[in-house]
User: Fold this.
Amino acid sequence: MSNEADNTPIQNAIAAACSTDLPEAIKIMATNNDVDTDTLEEELRQQVKFMEMVWVDAKAGGQLYKTMYSGVTYEQIISAGRPGTHAEVLAVNEVIKALKEAGKFHSAEDLKKISVMAKEGDLNLARCVHCFYLLQGVKTVGFD
Assistant:
């Protein structure tokens, strides 16, 4: 997650995620660069592993991102940071867990049941390139 105006990393991002199927289950998380992405729910973890491979390749000077992502620049890949660690992904992951516990999440199609908003202070944050692809189907609140 980065500030598009000057490409500086967002340090204090928080995100809230919820589902209409679980109105009481609003999950608020902060970006955590040390998160073990192996603990993410399977629907997110599969994609994160692929994105990490592309990100590591780009950091090493590789060009895989040009083949795998449409219209994404090197700067966007690198400034996005490690895939799966941003607040909105972590918050959505917690809602997925709650939906599964309630028997209301069965496949990636159920991501459409989830809404998320990421902020730093008063600023609504747009998704980085990783979160854009990772959270396909999740509604972003604040950018309609």
About this structure: Helices lie at 42-59, 64-68, 74-79, 87-101, 129-134. Residues 2-140 form one domain.
